């Protein structure tokens, strides 16, 4: 399979899942998760019609940015966010998907303010309550959004989650549904800096299920780029 064929197949699957859920496929944003992939592969994905790319590592992303890998596409940061790297990505990415604390929101706000921009972010939720994973506990989400509401240089645009490795599809489904509930709840928030529109969940193995449960942003790596070279980590 070529990458072009992969992109077509993934698109068709997105359409199928959206139709099954009675939703418009055009509402669903496909983000190519391009970690470890060289700039040339990223450019090829963009040419094949992938309009957004997600990166995990700041250094790798900055290198590929310099190489023009994302030209013509939207760039998202989807990896674990370290406070000391925030300065390097604010203003360079369309969306930071993986923010998991008030301290980090404040730092993003501070850096965005310096640049005179508004940085769009998603809040990562630890929906499975796993000690090993980043993300805000669902019970803390409301308080976080309220505390962040005075930060005018950030725009909180939704939620992101990576559910636990499930034993059964039904189990994953339950996490996706729980995320959808949270998403609907926070959509009613009155905060000026909340522009809730993205529910980011679903990867190569489960994006169809995620869409059926309400996701409108899927982060797909392997199903587009093939398997990753571990050596690039
Ligand atoms: C790598 C990655 C993905 C894509 O994973 P695949 O299983 O290869 O599709 C999605 N989201 C995040 C945060 C990732 O790090």
How would you portray this structure in words?
The chain is of the alpha/beta class. The protein has one domain: Alanine racemase (TIM Barrel), CATH 3.20.20.10. 39% of the residues lie in helices and 19% in strands. The chain has helices at residues 3-20, 39-47, 58-66, 86-89, 102-115, 141-148, 169-186, 207-212, 222-225; strands at residues 29-33, 52-55, 74-77, 95-99, 119-125, 154-161, 194-200, 217-220. Strands 7-6-5-4-3-2-1-8 form an eight-stranded parallel sheet. Strand 2, helix 3 (58-66) and strand 3 (74-77) form a beta-alpha-beta unit. The longest helix is centred in the N-terminal third of the chain and has 18 residues, at 3-20. 42% of the residues are buried. Pyridoxal-5'-phosphate is lined by residues 33, 35, 56, 78-79, 162, 203-205, 219-223.
């Amino acid at each position: 399979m070529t990458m072009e064929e992969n992109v077509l197949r993934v698109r068709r699957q997105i359409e199928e899942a959206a139709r099954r859920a009675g939703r418009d496929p055009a509402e669903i944003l496909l983000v190519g998760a391009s970690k470890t992939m060289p700039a040339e592969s990223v450019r090829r994905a963009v040419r094949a019609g992938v309009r957004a790319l997600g990166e995990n590592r700041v250094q790798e992303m900055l290198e590929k940015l310099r190489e023009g890998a994302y030209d013509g596409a939207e760039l998202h940061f989807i990896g674990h966010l370290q406070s000391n790297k925030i300065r390097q990505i604010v203003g360079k990415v369309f969306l930071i998907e993986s923010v998991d604390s008030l301290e980090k929101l404040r730092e993003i706000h501070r850096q965005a303010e310096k640049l005179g921009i508004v940085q769009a972010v998603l809040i990562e939720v630890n929906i499975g309550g796993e000690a090993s994973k980043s993300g805000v506990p669902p019970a803390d989400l409301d308080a976080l959004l309220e505390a962040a509401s005075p930060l005018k240089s950030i725009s909180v645009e939704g939620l992101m989650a990576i559910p636990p490795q499930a034993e059964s599809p039904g189990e994953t489904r339950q996490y996706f549904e729980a995320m959808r509930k949270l998403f609907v709840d926070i959509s009613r928030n009155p905060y000026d800096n909340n522009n809730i529109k993205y529910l980011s969940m679903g990867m190569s193995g489960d994006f169809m299920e995620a869409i059926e449960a309400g996701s409108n942003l899927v982060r797909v790596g392997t199903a587009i780029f093939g398997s990753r070279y571990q050596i690039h980590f």
